[in-house]
Design goal:
Helix content of chain B: 55-70%
Mean pLDDT of chain B: 85
Number of strands of chain A: 0
Largest interface: A-B, 44 and 78 residues
Number of helices of chain A: 6
Structural class of chain B: mainly alpha
Low-confidence stretches of chain A: none
Distance between the termini of chain A: 30 Å
Radius of gyration of chain B: 43 Å
Strand content of chain B: under 5%
Structural class of chain A: mainly alpha
Number of strands of chain B: 0
Oligomer: heterodimer
Largest sheet of chain A: none
Largest sheet of chain B: none
CATH superfamily of chain A: DnaJ domain
Low-confidence stretches of chain B: 1-6, 721-735, 810-824
Helix content of chain A: 55-70%
Number of helices of chain B: 45
Distance between the termini of chain B: 48 Å
């Protein structure tokens, strides 16, 4: 299971109310009839941390390895200065596509 | 062993007459099996090479289609080779553009350009092939560049395309790049480049607009990597989209506005691969720590230490030494993950509790309670039948000292004590739950149950009434309350307190919902009236009760149960109730299934004498059971007769069930259980063997229900091993020693003989018996000797373990437990 705090977009010290609000917001974004898998994940995340007891239990016993993609995504937040690629980079990308290399 | 299937002799294609060969070719074509069709049409062409026969066209077609199939699997080189057969064998060159495409995509540029030159006239102008060649030219592919004729658009437009690409990549202003792009016409083989560069340019000011521009580039375009980059960069969560790109695409991550450290992070991420180890993940976080949220990174590293304990030192260097609680928690989680030593895991978790024991903040106390409940759960999961759950109950009890507000723990404790027949503790835990949660329906329902079990009907009614106040549609509480009033009414009727009994019946009647009347209140009203010699009134009530019961069968059962509860004889009221002779009743399948449900409900109410009630119904029920054909129906009937219990009918129903489903272990058990009237001593040797076979089948098929039922039955044996220490109540699942009844009787005789002997002579005789034991396939001599001694002298598991030789595995039915796994 992905980190439920990250999935709901709440801090680890968020209150019950804040977590519920975030959960309802996520459900609105991913309603079960349109996105059942995502909804299930959101629901499971909410169940895992909805009360103080559940959060403590999660902190004590969950053994899943951390979701590095989540951590890395935060670290890769783009800046404003987009840099254009070099001509060589574009040519290289084209060559790799045309010869089937990835 | 399975009988081998005779194989059809394989007919060689060469041996088939031409007519059959043609039919086969048509069939293969319709199945799109071009691979085999090639062989057929090659042979047909060989037999009839004349052009009028048309085999050349057919062969050309199957070659081309097969080549397409290969190309769809990205086997471009193989596709090109196959295509080359067409001009050689068929004298045709269909779709040379495809052939060229496959050559180019497999990197055979020189050959491709030779084909380009020779098929130039047949190539479609401005198609995908041209776009592909243009992209290769732009990428600097020399063989392609050299072969393009000087006047071809591929050559004439190349300079403009290169200039536009250079202007964009060298950072020229937006307007300047746009001017360059204008030089590439929309019919140019470089038009996709124009569109892709326009989108990249737009990305800098209007990402949404950039998305609209790339929509016009076809999915087969060689510029798709640039399209995907634009889409990722304009996505709502570009960082996540960036991670989903290919490593080659991520080389252009500067487009996302990442700084040098982020680009390095991205490279490290790429190196992690698809399934990185915990070590690799730990090192990745450590190497890029400055970019992460520090607390999140710390938690991630801490979690990774579970699988990578060698990282502890680095962890301490990065985040400081682990606090004692986290270090202990890590130890416990690691022990739990290794899952090979429950004692160690429990000790490590207990270490966590000890660290929290003297803390006073609410979180620490709650954590201690949660850990103790977790330990109880581990004990429950790891239960191998060796103990009676004392440690588990102890964990739960301790947890309430830290967090007394967990309703479920009180109820769990009550159930656990009930399971070991400790009624005192069971009632006490329910009472404690009621004190703490006086308005909780679940707790109140548990309280109703304990009060009813203690025959405190008034108290039970009080609890049930409270549940109904809180939850008016709670049918269980309503039923319980009605039953409590009825039980009280019966008590009063037996004590000749008729007026009070009537009041109780009134209360029960008021609680019944109109659509759920069972007739039970009316039957009791009738019996009450008859007891007061109000014959007409009594008859009217009884007949109303019969009507409400639903069918004569159910009416008879209800009347019989109610009269027996009042210590009366059912037959005395048969005429008053206008019921015919129960032995002549006709019961339908629906009546029978409803009866099964009624019997189950009575069992839940712990009604006794159900076998007596069923006695008069034996013949009509047998007739209905005989007509049943559904396995589910028969299972339902067997289950309720087993619970009732009525041995004769159970055997009858199980025998019928075995006609429908001969191998089902549960039906074998029900039949033998019924035949032996639930007494293992009455099981015949042949049935004992059948029971053992059924047990083996149930175990192999993971039919836990059948296996548990059979094990319970076999554990009636006086020689079952009570796997619980002395003085702690019965074991949850005694393990029977599989001994056939005849042998058990012999052992019992020997035991009685030994008991009669004086002690000194008894010991000598015992030694002699043990020394003369015949070899046994299942038990080593030491174990066999210890078991026989226990069976002859009696004694508990501890005596048996003392007798066993050290390090001997104890074979147990179903492979549960063993000495080596026993918890201390």
């Amino acid at each position: 299971m992905p980190n439920p705090f990250d999935l709901l977009g709440v801090a680890e010290d968020a209150s019950d109310d804040a977590i519920k609000k975030a959960y309802l917001q996520r459900v609105r974004e991913h309603p079960p009839e349109r996105d059942p898998d995502r909804f299930q994940a959101i629901r499971a995340a909410y169940e895992a941390i909805k009360t103080r007891k559940a959060r403590l239990s999660y902190r004590l016993f969950h053994q899943e390895t951390p979701d590095l993609a989540e951590l890395t995504t935060v670290a890769l937040r783009p800046g404003d200065a987009r840099r254009r690629p070099s001509e060589a980079q574009v040519r290289q990308l084209l060559s790799q596509r045309l010869t089937g290399q990835k | 062993m399975r009988k081998p299937i005779p194989q059809q002799p394989r007919v060689r294609l060469e041996d088939l007459p031409t007519r059959e060969l043609i039919a086969r070719g048509v069939a293969l074509l319709s199945d799109q099996n071009y691979k085999d069709a090639i062989d057929v049409y090659k042979l047909l062409l060989k037999r009839e090479p004349h052009p009028d026969a048309g085999w050349r066209d057919s062969l050309a077609k199957v070659y081309l289609e097969r080549a397409r199939q290969l190309a769809q699997k990205a086997m471009h080189r193989e596709a090109a080779v196959l295509w080359e057969n067409i001009p050689t064998l068929c004298g045709q060159t269909p779709q040379p553009d495809l052939y060229l495409d496959w050559l180019l995509r497999s990197g055979q540029y020189a050959k491709a350009m030779r084909a380009y030159a020779s098929h130039a006239a047949a190539l479609p102008a401005g198609g995908e092939l041209e776009t592909l060649l243009a992209a290769l030219a732009l990428a600097g592919q020399k063989e392609v560049l050299q072969a393009i004729p000087p006047d071809a658009p591929l050559r004439t437009h190349l300079t403009a395309a290169q200039a536009a690409l250079r202007a964009y990549t060298q950072g020229e202003a937006e307007d300047a790049v746009r001017e360059r792009l204008k030089a590439i016409s929309i019919r140019s083989p470089y038009r996709d480049l124009r569109q892709a560069l326009a989108a990249l340019l737009k990305l800098e000011t209007d990402p949404t607009g950039a998305l609209a521009l790339v929509e016009r580039i076809p999915p087969t375009s060689p510029y798709q990597d640039l399209v995907e980059l634009v889409r990722a960069s304009a996505a709502a969560d570009p960082a996540r989209a960036l991670l989903a790109l290919t490593p080659a695409q991520r080389e252009l991550a500067g487009l996302f506005g990442l700084d040098a450290r982020q680009l390095k992070l991205l490279k490290d991420w790429a190196r992690l691969g698809d399934r990185p180890s915990d070590k690799a993940k730990f090192e990745f976080i450590a190497a890029n720590l400055a970019l992460f949220d520090r607390e999140q990174a710390r938690r991630a590293c801490l979690a990774l230490l579970l699988g990578y304990p060698q990282g502890s030192k680095t962890y301490s260097n990065l985040f400081g030494p682990l606090p004692p609680f986290e270090a202990q928690q890590l130890k416990a989680l690691r022990a739990e993950r290794e899952d090979d030593d429950l004692d160690r895991t429990l000790r490590d978790w207990q270490g966590c509790v000890d660290l929290l024991r003297h803390e006073t903040d609410p979180d620490s106390r709650l954590m201690a309670a949660l850990i103790l409940r977790h330990m109880a759960e581990l004990l429950r999961k790891g239960d191998d039948g060796w103990d009676d759950g004392e440690q588990l109950r102890d964990c739960l009890e301790q947890s309430l000292r830290f967090d007394p507000d967990d309703r479920d723990v009180y109820l769990q404790l009550a159930i656990l004590y009930k399971e070991v027949d400790n009624d005192k503790e069971y009632h006490q835990w329910v009472e404690q739950a009621v004190k703490r949660f006086p308005d909780d329906p679940l707790v109140l329902l548990a309280a109703v149950k304990t009060a009813t079990a203690r025959k405190a009907h008034k108290k039970a009614a009080g609890f049930a009434a409270r549940v109904l106040e809180l939850d008016p549609i709670n049918t269980k509480a309503r039923t319980v309350l009605i039953n409590a009033h009825l039980a009280h009414a019966r008590k009063l009727m037996r004590a000749d307190k008729y007026a009070l009994a009537e009041k109780e019946l009134d209360s029960a009647g008021q609680l019944e919902r109109d659509n759920a009347r069972t007739g039970i209140v009316e039957i009791n009203r009738g019996l009450l009236a008859l007891q007061q010699r109000q014959r007409d009134l009594g008859r009217r009530w009884l007949r109303e009760g019969v009507r409400l019961a639903g069918s004569p069968l159910l009416a008879w059962v209800r009347l019989a149960v109610e009269t027996l509860r009042l210590k009366l004889e059912p037959a005395d009221f048969q005429r008053d109730a206008d019921l015919s002779d129960p032995r002549k009743l006709n019961a339908s399948r629906t009546d029978l299934l409803a009866l099964a449900q009624l019997l189950n409900a009575y069992r839940e109410e712990e009604v006794k004498d159900l076998d007596t009630v069923l006695e008069d119904l034996e013949k009509p029920l047998q007739r209905t059971i005989k007509a049943l054909t559904s396995e589910d129906d028969l299972l339902l009937i067997c289950e309720s007769l087993h619970q009732a219990p009525h041995y004769g009918l159970l055997e009858y129903a199980a025998t019928r069930a075995l006609e429908v489903q001969p191998e089902r272990s549960l039906f074998v058990y029900y039949q033998i259980y019924g035949r032996a009237e639930g007494d293992l001593d009455l099981v015949k040797d042949r049935d004992y063997d059948r029971l053992e076979q059924a047990m083996e089948r149930a175990t192999a098929a993971k039919d836990h229900r059948a296996a548990t039922s059979i094990t319970r039955f076999l554990s009636q044996s006086p020689f079952s091993l009570p796997f619980a220490p002395k003085g702690r109540g019965p074991a949850p699942m005694p393990m029977p020693i599989p001994i056939p009844p005849k042998m058990r009787r012999e052992i019992e005789d020997m035991r009685r003989e030994l008991e009669r002997l004086p002690p000194a002579l008894r010991d000598r005789m015992l030694d002699q018996i043990l020394d003369e034991l015949p070899p046994d396939d299942e038990f080593p001599p030491g174990v066999q000797r210890a078991l026989m001694k226990m069976m002859l002298l009696g004694g508990g598991i501890e005596d048996l373990l003392d007798e066993l030789p050290e390090d001997l595995p104890l074979p147990l039915p179903g492979g549960r437990g063993g000495r080596g796994k026993r918890r201390s």
